[in-house]
Every structure is written in structure tokens, then in C-alpha cells.
Design brief:
The protein is mainly β.
Length: 721
């Protein structure tokens, strides 16, 4: 069976009328749900809360066993009672806040349908039920049934879309539409219970939720549901603009359940533009009031007592009028006799802090009074950033803190040196970790010293670590080779206050181009480093000068590198080019390049000291110059003279890819391929099917390849006797 649960928000707008033997619910923002506990047979009513520590969903049994199976429930605003049906027996029930059940009898519902989804219309007149196939494994909805709660008559309309998998529905308190979420086809729709018309609003909801067994609206028009992702049950928020369904809090696995909501009430949320700030800052506070009761509410009072040191500086916006009995210049906001119209609006005011405001964490919460008894007389503001109901906003006030770390290395304490720390550029109250309150200190011992400076708004922490270092010397030697008249930069790899080069420079680096010894002395308090750089020059060059070579196609470019080396250092050669397959070798001094395409080629020489040189040139392959000659007459008769018809060429390496001869009727009398030009054996002997042909004119076609080019030839040949 499908898991069906709803955290039923019971927020009625009309004073509940106590019926004989039944106690109406109080619309105080509490969620309720009805489901059958595991290993039991009948439904129970539960209050739904959220754990203050984990925020997980918590169910508290209010009614004990109802003795019935209750599903497709809805909250009736006119009497503040819950109505629902037994989906199998089709009995209509009414349940009160104490779990007392009133059996209203069997209603004329479709015997071929099961009813697990329902809600009461905003005017309290009808219970709208969604009928689905009685083959529960399919569960697709096909009708909407309106049960008149005054006379229990039933009107049934077929749904205009019948492939909807609907597990619950809920009425929106602001537009009055009945909403459904189809997790099977991933869409959100509204249903007109009078006509059965289904209007798909979103056809691509984004969520891993598998089923939403329960749906309900709050008084701000926000849609929520309880369902599961296949592995996790929980409380979900549903965005009606984007279709996004997001798991808010984790719940438990329950079955045979449903729920309802009564969003027709007055509620208040509080927002603070910052979760924390410092004592010299200012915050903007908003009290957001929703009235979904169907009428303007009068005589409402809103108040909020702020902690000591908090000061209201301005009421920016108050659309509810009323008598402001306390506000600017105090830490109490109090407005009496307000008028709250239908809809959602806010009171905006600013707050700052004086020196008496203690830096700590505060709970801030407003009160709303003057509600009718059916709405619970009063309520408190809710923090919308959590799922916990009617919880305060958590706000942190602190001193602004700035931490600056210094690490100071003195010269040498043992030689009478000392360290002076001057913090007089700061203002405020000074306190060192050793109890001193001086702005300027002289230290002659190593250690860690912390200074805390405070003023009205700011706390600055300065940390100084003073370390004694013994006098040390260290020497480095570096050998550097300058190649081919280049220069180099000599740089210290140690950052110190003082540099002294043998050239007279005091910079951290110098540029040199001559051989010789360059010395660098680096000092930092007690430390001294000596770095010797020995510079020697070398030349390694390729002396070849032509920048391009012209070569006939099929011929080679032969190059022997002319390399000059000023030392006996070993060197290596490497070649690269656009046609690597044309190189006779890749690491030789004498190169032969045989290529059919133009391109650049480079020889690189590198010695064991890292000196290198390159020689780059261009190979220009000249266009192919070849002539092919075709006789126009031949006399095949076996006399040894002019007996073969074949092509002649000034290049012997031409390959005859295809050679064909046709008579005047287009019949192929000769065909040959993969032969060499200038070879009589590759030609036609004038015979067709073993006999000499009669004198006539014949057509020929040939494809001959020279190197990487293929040339086509067509013509005619006359056979004579």
C-alpha cells in the first residue's frame, strides 16, 4: 500500500461551533495527521512537531485508536472539525480534537473507485474527494466527488485528464484552487471540483520524491507535503513557480495515512536582515503578517520586547495603522487596535545598539494578540528559516574582532639587543597578556606576547612572537654556464633585509653577461650567508646558412650539419619537421630528406651543460615535370616492328594503375593494371580474344602514378596492317 501521511496544518478562520459531544480544534498553527500505526487496524490522530535539536519530524498521539480507518481528510472551516471517509466502506466521518468520531453514514460514492485524496472547500460546504482505480496498484485518478456536508448528497465529475497518480489534494487559501501533485508523471496541476477540469501548471517537477501522500497549504500560500524518496520519508516544500520539491526535514515511515490543513488564519513571521552583527551596527527587522481568514481582522495588537541596549530607531513601514504605544527611542515595539486586511504584508523597523547591549546570543520573538478563540486568541512569531513551529529568531551580537599576527626575529639578545613594540597608532583600552596596559613596550627576552585593544565597537588582537637566534654563517656555491653570448640573472633565494654584491649592488638580484666570480653577502640580524656564483661562457652553434632548399619531386635534400663547439663537451642532435617519415634519421649529423610536400625542418643541438642552438630551413618541392608519349598508330602483325601499344615517359618510375582500350561500340578489348611505363609488356598486342583485330580506330584510357601524383590520359590509337 502507498505510504500516505500529511502534516495537517489546522488554521481555521471562523469561530468553531461546538457540536454536541465533539470538541472543535483550535487553529494555533499546529500540524495534525491521521494514520494507522504498524501492527494495528485503526487510525489515530497525531500532532506533528519538529525536534528542536535535530529538526526531525516527531509524531505525538492525541486521540488513541479512533476505531475506524480514516482517510481523504479535510478541515472544515465552519465548525473546526475534520471530515474524512473510509476509502473501502465509503462511510463519512467527522472527528474532533479529542478523537471523538461521529459516523455520518454511507455516502453514494462510486463503488468502482477508492478515495485516498481529499480536502474541504474553503467555504466549508463540500468535501472534495479524488476517486482512483480500485486496483490500488495502478491508483490513477479518474473522477472528483463533491460530498455536500449539509445534506451528504454526492456529485461526481470525470476528470479531464485520467493518467494522474494523485495521493492527496489541498485547497490554496488565496486563489481557492484545488492543487494536486502527480509524482508519477512529474507534474503539478489544479482541479476544478465542479467540472472535473484538470489544468497542468508545471509538467517537469524536479525532485527525487516518489510519492507525496499528503499535501497542505499554510496561511502564507506555501505548499508542503509529507512523502518519501524511496529510501527516506520526510517533510517536503513545493515551489509552485519552479516545480522544485525539496526535502526539508527527515521523518519516519508510516502507512495508511492522510491529512488536511486549515490555512484560514492569521500568522506572523519574523525576519532579521542579519543573523549576527556588532554593537555599533544597525539591523532591519520585519514582522510579516498573513491574514487568510476571509475577512479583515480588527483589534489586533503586535508587540515585541527587545533586550536591554536595543533601541528602535525608525518604523519604516506599517500598513496596519493602529495606535503606536511604544516604538522609537525604546526597546519595546507595541502597536494596538490594528486592522489586518486579507493578504500578506509587513511591518518594517530598524534597531541599533548602545553600550549596555551585552555581546551574546539572543532569542527574538514577537507576540500577536486579539484573535478570536477559534484561532487561539494569540500567537507568537515564527522563524521561517527553520521547520520548527513558532520558534524564535536566533540573533548574535558581538564586538567586532580583528586579529593581526606579527613574527619578530631580533638581532641577538645575547649581545644586548632588544625589541621595541609601539602600538600607539591604535586607540582604546590596552591589555597585554602579562597584565601591562602600556602602548609601547621594550622586550629583551624571547616569548609570545599578546595585546588586546578594545573600544566601544572593536576588539583588536595583536600577537607578537619574539625569537632569539644565535649568530650563524652559511656558504653556497653555484656554477652557471652562459651560452652563446647570453646574459643571466643572479638572484638570492633568501629574503633578508640586507644584500651586498661584489659588484657594489645592494639589490636582491643582478644581471651579468661576463665570465667571472660574483659574490653575494646576505645579513639578517644574527645571520649571515655567503653565496658565490662562478660564471663561464660557452658557444655551441650550427653554422649552416641556407634558409630554404628547392628539390625536384622524388629527389632528396642532403644536409650535413656544420657544428661549432668552444668546448669538448658532448652534444646531441635532434631533428623535427612536418614530414617526419621523410627523414633518414632523427639524431644524426648528416641528414637526407626525401619528401613530396613543402615544409619546415629544424635541427637542434644541445650539449651536456645545457647550451643549445637550432637551424631551421624550408624545403620547397618543385612541381612534377614529366612527359608521357602515346603512339597514334601501330601495326600488330608479329613482325617485331611496332607490334605493341604502350606509353613512353621520360621518367622510368611511373606506375600504370589502369590501362584500358575500347572499340567503337564501347566494348573493352584490353585491360591491364599495376605495370611500369616504358615496358612493351605492359601494352596491347592488338589482339582480342586471341585474334588480331581488324584495322580500325580504338579509344584508350589510362591512370599513371608518378610519385604521389596520379595523372589521367585519354586518346585514340589506329590499328593498321
Amino acid at each position: 500500500m502507498h505510504k500516505r501521511i500529511i502534516a495537517s496544518l489546522i488554521l481555521s478562520s471562523i469561530l468553531a461551533i461546538t457540536l454536541q459531544g465533539q470538541q472543535p480544534f483550535v487553529c494555533d498553527g499546529t500540524f495534525y495527521t491521521s494514520f494507522i500505526p504498524e501492527n494495528q487496524n485503526y487510525s489515530r490522530i497525531y500532532q506533528v512537531d519538529f525536534d528542536a535539536v535535530t529538526s526531525n519530524v516527531v509524531f505525538t498521539d492525541l486521540s488513541g485508536s479512533l476505531g475506524i480507518e480514516l482517510n481523504a481528510i479535510g478541515y472544515r472551516v465552519t465548525d473546526n472539525l475534520i471530515y474524512g471517509v473510509d476509502p473501502y466502506e465509503r462511510i463519512l466521518y467527522r472527528v474532533d480534537a479529542n478523537g471523538v468520531v461521529n459516523n455520518l453514514g454511507v455516502v453514494a460514492l462510486n463503488q468502482n473507485a477508492l478515495y485516498f485524496a481529499g480536502d474541504v472547500t474553503p467555504n466549508g460546504r463540500h468535501l472534495a474527494l479524488i476517486g482512483a482505480s480500485n486496483t490500488f496498484t495502478s491508483g490513477y485518478a479518474f473522477e472528483v466527488a463533491l460530498v455536500d456536508l449539509n445534506n451528504y448528497n454526492v456529485t461526481i465529475k470525470s476528470l479531464s485528464i485520467t493518467d494522474m497518480f494523485i495521493t492527496d489534494v489541498a485547497f490554496n487559501p488565496f486563489d481557492g484552487l484545488l492543487y494536486a501533485v502527480d509524482t508519477d508523471k512529474r507534474r503539478i496541476a489544479t482541479i476544478d471540483p465542479e467540472t472535473g477540469t484538470v489544468n497542468v501548471l508545471i509538467s517537469n517537477i524536479t525532485s527525487e520524491v516518489e510519492t507525496l501522500a499528503s499535501l497542505f497549504f499554510d496561511s502564507f500560500g506555501n505548499l508542503y507535503g509529507y512523502g518519501d524518496t524511496g529510501t527516506l520519508d520526510g517533510f517536503f516544500s513545493i515551489n509552485l513557480q519552479t516545480g522544485s520539491i525539496i526535502l526539508q526535514e527527515q521523518g519516519i515511515d508510516v502507512t495508511y495515512n492522510d491529512g488536511c490543513s486549515c490555512p484560514y488564519t492569521v500568522e506572523i513571521l519574523q525576519r532579521i536582515d542579519k543573523e549576527e552583527t556588532v554593537v555599533c551596527d544597525e539591523i532591519l527587522m520585519s514582522l510579516i503578517v498573513s491574514n487568510a481568514t476571509g475577512e479583515t481582522r480588527t483589534g489586533i495588537e503586535i508587540s515585541e520586547q527587545l533586550p536591554a541596549g536595543y533601541n528602535i530607531t525608525e518604523i519604516i513601514y506599517n500598513p496596519f495603522l493602529g495606535n503606536v504605544t511604544s516604538s522609537v527611542g525604546t526597546n519595546l515595539l507595541q502597536i494596538e487596535n490594528m486592522q489586518i486586511p486579507l493578504g500578506i504584508d509587513s511591518i518594517l523597523f530598524k534597531v541599533d545598539f548602545d553600550l549596555s547591549a551585552a555581546p551574546t546570543v539572543y532569542n527574538l520573538q514577537a507576540n500577536l494578540d486579539g484573535l478570536p478563540s477559534a484561532l487561539g486568541f494569540s500567537t507568537v512569531s515564527d522563524n521561517p528559516m527553520t521547520s520548527i513551529q513558532n520558534d524564535p529568531n536566533i540573533f548574535s551580537l558581538k564586538l567586532e574582532e580583528l586579529v593581526t599576527n606579527f613574527e619578530i626575529i631580533p638581532t641577538c639578545f645575547g649581545q644586548g639587543d632588544s625589541v621595541v613594540i609601539d602600538a600607539s597608532s591604535y586607540s582604546g583600552n590596552f591589555m597585554w597578556n602579562d597584565g601591562s596596559t602600556l602602548q609601547e613596550r621594550v622586550f629583551d627576552e624571547p616569548g609570545v606576547y599578546e595585546l588586546v585593544i578594545t573600544d566601544d565597537c572593536l576588539k583588536t588582537v595583536l600577537e607578537y612572537e619574539i625569537t632569539e637566534i644565535e649568530f650563524e654563517q652559511e656558504a653556497f656555491n653555484t656554477q652557471i654556464t652562459l651560452c652563446n653570448d647570453q646574459d643571466t640573472t643572479l638572484i638570492s633565494n633568501i629574503t633578508v633585509p640586507n644584500y651586498a654584491w661584489s659588484t657594489g649592488s645592494t639589490a636582491q638580484s643582478i644581471v651579468v653577461s661576463d665570465d667571472g666570480l660574483y659574490q653575494l653577502t646576505m645579513t639578517d640580524f644574527c645571520l649571515e650567508w655567503q653565496h658565490d656564483f662562478t660564471i663561464s661562457s660557452q658557444e655551441l652553434r650550427i653554422l649552416n646558412t641556407p634558409l630554404s632548399y628547392d628539390v625536384e619531386k622524388g629527389e632528396s635534400v642532403d644536409i650535413t650539419l656544420d657544428i661549432f663547439s668552444s668546448t669538448n663537451s658532448n652534444y646531441s642532435i635532434s631533428w623535427s619537421g612536418e614530414d617526419m617519415n621523410s627523414l633518414s634519421c632523427i639524431d644524426c649529423i648528416a641528414q637526407s630528406i626525401n619528401t613530396y610536400q613543402d615544409g619546415y625542418y629544424t635541427a637542434t643541438v644541445v650539449n651536456e651543460n645545457g647550451c643549445s642552438d637550432t637551424y631551421t630551413f624550408y624545403v620547397n618541392v618543385l612541381p612534377l615535370k614529366v612527359k608521357v608519349f602515346w603512339p597514334n598508330v601501330f601495326s600488330p602483325n608479329g613482325d617485331g616492328v611496332n607490334d605493341q601499344f604502350f606509353p613512353f615517359s621520360d621518367l622510368d618510375n611511373g606506375m600504370i594503375l589502369k590501362f584500358e582500350i575500347f572499340d567503337r561500340w564501347g566494348e573493352n578489348v584490353f585491360s591491364n593494371e599495376d605495370q611500369i611505363v616504358n615496358d612493351p609488356g605492359a601494352g596491347w598486342d592488338g589482339k582480342f580474344k586471341g585474334d588480331y583485330v581488324h584495322p580500325a580506330v580504338f579509344a584508350f584510357y589510362a591512370e599513371i602514378q608518378f610519385f604521389d601524383e596520379v595523372r589521367l590520359f585519354e586518346g585514340s590509337i589506329s590499328v593498321v596492317r
